Amino acid sequence: MSVTTSEPPEQRASRDATTLRSGSLGTADIAFFVVSAAAPLTVMAGVAPLAILLGGIGAPVGYLLAGLTLAVFAVGFTTMSRHVTSGGAFYAFITRGLGRPVGIGAALLALIGYNGMEIGVYGLLATTTRDTLHSLVGADVPWLPVSLAGLVLIGYGGYRSIDFGAKLLGVLLVAETGILVLLAGGVLLKGGAHGLSLASLAPAHVFVPGTAAVLAFAFAAFTGFESTVIYRREARDPERTVPRATYAAVGFLGLFYAFVVWIAVQAFGDDQVVRAAGDDPAGLFFTAIATYVGGWAADLMHLFIVTSVIASLLAFHNAINRYALALAEEGVLPRRLGRVHARHRSPYVAGLAQTVLGALVVLAFWAADADPYQQLLLWVNTPGMIGLLVLQLLAAIAVPCYFRRVRHTEGALRTVVAPVVAAVLLVTAIVLVVTHIDLFTGASPAVNALLVVVAPAVFLLGLPLAWWLRRARPDVYTGFAAEPDEPAGSTGATVPPVSAK
């Protein structure tokens, strides 16, 4: 006689309720999170005019080059994602390739980087909302209530299920990209200012002194695209969904950015667009859409910039919560942060902690009488951007190191050539951003120096933390970034990875 044992239904339901909701996200859903984090409308209307001012009519090509660089990075990145399935994403990849001390430093850098990218944007939310209300109804509102209301709204969005977030971001993303497509349609139908031109693609206009600055802006515009792997545990068929979403996000952003910047050039003409960008950079896109579509479309663009910022905040908030969840499960952060909501299956405690942290930072800048854009956004956002670029570089280096030590059937193009090329290109990107840091911050040299050193300083803090964990909490140290089915203490060097099939 055989005996069958199983969990009681209520115990099984209780256990299942403590995990994220698997199989919830398809390729489009994950791509929505990634593209929304990049905030295409905000990047175009707020930053692209500066790229045109500095780089001239060749600026569209800068976005293509940045997209190509990150597509090369995605080759090795997505290949490794089929073999490393930990919820820690960046820090898990780096740990498996470069060791636990480096991985723990990367985990701290990921927390600071993503929090910096998100919390600073509450300053942008305040300024865009204030500008929109002033433009539409002539009202002037203080910035603090807007930022605090945004914190509550985003906190609620993160508290709800991932399905809710995906649907909301889908709607908001369609709105912000749709208004840019509307602008493009108006310019193309009317033939631009002086007829459509492809002079932006000419080498003489691409390889100019300002191209370095354009590339710095362009790389910053893709920040957060790599967060596709964070949603692996909630993805349907993650071996296929995650790589597809990554390539879809990078491809869309690169082509869309370049196309929209080219449209802006056509709207004013090759010989006038730089002057127009210099005269009114903040109003360049609003002037263009009012001219080619109508004043009502400019009003819509004002509204959709606000929703674009909200979408970016929610996307980064969800990514941060899942990083915190993974680190809580690792034992590096307090275990309480790893609690998952019984009904929504969201990391709600981590979300609450992130919302409280955001509120404290916002209130601190308000108490210091800081400007929400010049200080809160730029001073908090910039170290986060640099931190994520450094994480991308470390992940690119980790890929060939990992595959050199494990048995696999992947080709050298994916495991060696593409990651090495990506690492070289990412070093170039980091150098461009750091050497043009004043364009991002508008701050003094002393402040810029401080903002640049935040990322390496946080990373280096991980080394003594790793040493302490190894001595004081060896179980946490040896289990850090381990695969669910692998013995504690292994770094994956002798364990065959998951089949790529």
Automatic annotation (TrEMBL):
Residues 1-20 are annotated as: Disordered. Its main location: membrane. It is found in: Membrane. Residues 34-474 form the Amino acid permease/ SLC12A domain. The chain crosses the membrane at residues 30-55, 61-81, 102-125, 137-156, 168-189, 201-225, 245-265, 285-316, 348-368, 380-403, 415-437, 449-469. Keywords: Membrane, Transmembrane, Transmembrane helix. The keyword Ribosomal protein does not apply. Pfam families: AA_permease (PF00324). It is a multi-pass membrane protein. It comes from the Bacteria. PANTHER family: AMINO ACID PERMEASE, AMINO ACID TRANSPORTER-RELATED. This is APC family permease. It comes from Streptomyces sp. 900105245.
